[in-house]
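Entry 14. Two folds queued back to back today. First construct below, sequence then structure tokens.
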Amino acid sequence: MGVYEELQERGLIAQVTNEEEIRKMVNEGKAIFYIGFDPTADSLHVGHFMALCLMKRLQAAGNKPIALVGGGTGMIGDPSGRSDMRQMMTTEMIDHNCACFKKQMSRFIDFSEGKALMVNNADWLRDMNFMEFLREVGPHFSVNEMLRARCYVNRLSQGLSFFEFSYMLMQGYDFYRLYEDYGCNMEFGGDDQWSNMLAGTELIRKKLGKDAHAMTITLLTNKEGKKMGKTASGAVWLDAAKTSPYDFYQYWRNVDDADVGKCLRLLTFIPMEEIKKMDAWEGAELNKAKEILAYHLTELVHGAEEAKKAEEAAKSLFAGGGNSANTPKCVLKKAEYPEGIDILNLLVVSGLAPSKGEARRNVQQGGVSFAGEKITDIGRQLSLSELENEPLLQKGKKSFMKIVLE
């Protein structure tokens, strides 16, 4: 089985423009492909996970990835699937976020010896003259066709600014420049990017002729990634400072039963033969499949040592011990809490609840325990003496935090 057929079997491929040629190039390791990443934050998140795993799979088969960071397009923001305009960022924020991406990507992609490239579209977009851009790109796009694009549907009824309307032209121009400058012959992207991706292939065809090998393939990165990457407390980040390895492990350990097989297929490198066997697992065996998923992905993102620590802590807490050296900790400074802290604030400070409102609901629903005692009073004040000896704060059955007083 070639790598293209494996992508099909794993459920990654949604749409392609020229399947036979794409299949041949990918299987022969001749694809030079790119995936774009808009620097809307200083860390990649689970929504990017499938794209990174795809790049890793294809690079292992001899293909060359180009990670395009949107230092230029990020100044506008992609309107695809949105009902409002993105908040504009400063160039300093964008450049900082772009710099953060390569370090995280390097865990998935080998950038050594020209095996992969990271390119920033700020190099050609930021200093481009507006009239030059209109003459270079504008004649090749029909406004009538653009208005029918799926990526604009959510915005047309509420108002789409010209600022955002130009995003498709810029993404199309990105592909053209990558084709010209780096020999990039393929673009990969999320299912909501189809219209923007076709814009690039059309621009190459119109400017360079029908023989230009510009092909696209669409993954389920955006739709499935957004579904997978959200929790009650927000996004699941790949940066350990934003989402700890333990919380990352626990997120995957607690995925819905119905999503286990899909996650194993889309995100792991476990052979399909093994995954198919796990499809039939139920009960305790299904929990084992979740543990395999959580460990595999935590190891991929944070390394084997952190994955082992997270697994050990999770098993210890599940068994009711709660005293593992790897149990996640929340450090409180005595000087900052001389009178102690109330339970709602503690839930928020520890990261077990995203807000006091959510913390209040957790307590009222009987889902919070402190030092083995169920807390039912939303006004419960915890004294400094109660916070000593590293008591365990628990929310629900699977979320724990050791409180450390310094």
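Second construct, same run, same settings:
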Amino acid sequence: MQRFSYKTQRMFILFGFLTIPVLLSLTFSYYPALSLIYYSFTDWTGLGWNMNWVGLANYKEIFTKPDVFMSLKNNAYYFVGGLIQTVLSLWFAVILTSRLKGRNIFRSALFLPYVLHSVATVIMFKNVYHLDYGSLNALLRGIGLESWQQKWLGNPVLVNFSLAFISMWKYMGLNMVIFIGALQSIPGDVYEAASIDGATAWQKFRFITMPSIKSVLSLMLILTLTGALEAFDIPYVMLLGANGTSTFVIKTVDTAFKYQNFGLASAMAVVLLAIVLIFIVIQRKVLFREEK
């Protein structure tokens, strides 16, 4: 049998290892994305393959219906909650990378909510927020703050704050673990040199920690933005989007499956993708400009 040269063998190996991932990516990512864009220009109902080309009619309907984009204001609650969650995650990460006794126990306790299934988390918080037997109102009653008791899921003013808090509680552990990994990659000699020079804890954090985790912080802000715009499971499982809790994704899903208008829903998904990309570009250009 003829023996191939090293260069030929290398090409065969690279081709073999890259073929399957590329095929999977084309099949489950790029083809569905291109199909989504195509469907957004049709009146497809999602049943069968009978569809008519309607051009930009779906996009025109999106931008002429104020109630479609009004749902984005509910996504803003999750975005603000995500920013608070990022700050708290970084704070806990800084504390739990210090020489704290039992830090692994605290890490596990804070990461545990992320492991729980979203449906289980929502069911648990239904018992927390319940007006009569909820643990939150019971706690307020027990410490003499009966006037603070609320209909946490029935009050339109408070309901989105309550749901955003669930998202903060669930995903803060994941962000904390990512920050811990970033902080542990910073050499300890840098902090020791700063201590010798008389730097305070705040100066170390500002001039050493923050510049060192700049790329990770950028990633976390992108995840916060995309997570806020894609908020779906918590408000949908809790209230099915009722009582003013409907987000942009819930409206998209209802348009597709409840009203059988997959063409319009596809256009809404494309618009959401465009919004995410625009915000990411703005963030990269304004907040995290690359130093030349």
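Quick look at the second one. Residues 40-67+249-292 form one domain. The two ends are 54 Å apart (CA to CA).
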